[in-house]
Specification:
By secondary structure, this protein is of the alpha/beta class.
């Protein structure tokens, strides 16, 4: 298995901790009516984002679903800007106008979360085509759930990407549930990855709870894309520890299912591997945890004191405005 260097392991573990703690705080803020709209959390899926981000370089781009906080944090969206965006503040990464389901920060390559199921997939195709035409060597990555593989945009995107050999990674975070429906009630195949065969591209199944397994698969696919050999479909077998959104307690889950998946917490998996390799001990892990918690709390307090957008600012960013306009 491909492993991360020590510093990359430390960074991945730290960001997974930040993501977990940030989302716990986001839930609290939502219930306190400090975050409007809705939220979709991803505890349990952190390794999918962190492992993939470790395989990318500046200039690469990512699109994702409305469950996108972990992708934003993995790519390096500053926690302050993220929390401000959650609260609709002017200093948020989208000026407070995107919120939880549309978190975006082009400065780190995040072209946006998308509230339309599968809507982000064709956008990544456009980014990949741009990279190909301009010869930048950049790769586009798009994250989506297993439910999105049953819609037309998924199949059309894979077909076009394969025909044009576009540098794009299709990353399916298969967390077993499309909203409240278990995957096998809506999907006729056992593994999403087998659908790649229809489009003459590699289909890879990966343990989505293992950040280094994700990194290894993503690295191979990225290298293939940069070499001009086209796209890859990677299925990340993962699980969300919370319900679909808001106050969903997930009563549709079979008894004991969550307990089994909690034993494969991605944070604990990487932590245990680092301890076994002599790169971490419990004291150091607690220090990392405290540092992550401090960073999250700092971001929350800073964001709470920031102003909301003015009425004038609310009408901007609707249409393209050139610098000379």
């Amino acid at each position: 298995m491909t492993t991360l260097a020590l510093e990359a392991r430390q960074a991945a573990l730290h960001r997974m901790l930040e993501s977990r703690m940030a989302e716990e705080k986001i839930q609290e803020l939502f219930l306190a009516n400090l975050i409007r709209g809705t939220t979709h959390l991803s505890p349990g899926q952190e390794a999918c984002a962190m492992g993939t981000a470790a395989a990318l370089r500046p200039g690469d781009t990512v699109t994702c679903t409305y469950r996108g906080h972990h992708h934003a944090i993995a790519l390096g969206v500053p926690l302050r800007r993220l929390m401000a965006e959650m609260m609709g503040k002017a200093s948020g990464s989208c000026g407070g106008k995107g919120g939880s389901m549309h978190i975006t920060d082009a400065s780190v390559g995040l072209l946006g979360a998308n509230a339309i199921v599968g809507g982000q997939i064709p956008i990544a195709l456009g980014a990949a085509l741009t990279a190909q035409v301009k010869g930048t060597g950049a790769v586009a990555v798009t994250f989506f759930g297993e439910g999105a593989t049953n819609i037309g945009a998924f199949h059309e995107a894979l077909n076009m990407a394969s025909v044009w050999k576009l540098p794009v990674l299709f990353m399916c975070e298969n967390n077993l549930y499309g909203e409240y429906s278990v995957w096998n009630k809506t999907t006729p195949v056992q593994d999403i990855a087998v659908r790649a065969a229809s489009y003459a591209m590699p289909g890879v199944i990966v343990d989505g709870q293992d950040a280094e397994a994700v990194y290894g698969a993503a690295s191979e696919a990225v290298a293939r894309a940069r070499a001009g050999d086209g796209p890859t479909l990677i299925e990340l077998k993962t699980y969300r520890f919370r319900g679909h959104s808001r106050t969903d307690m997930a009563p549709y889950r079979p008894a004991g299912e969550l307990d089994e998946w909690l034993k494969r917490d991605p944070i604990e998996i990487l932590k245990a591997r680092m301890i076994a390799d002599g790169q971490l001990d419990e004291v150091e892990f607690e220090e990392l945890s405290r540092a992550a918690e401090t960073a999250v709390m700092d971001a929350v307090e800073w964001a709470r004191s920031e102003p909301f957008p003015t009425l004038e600012e609310m009408t901007k960013d609707i249409y393209y405005e050139s610098a000379g306009a």
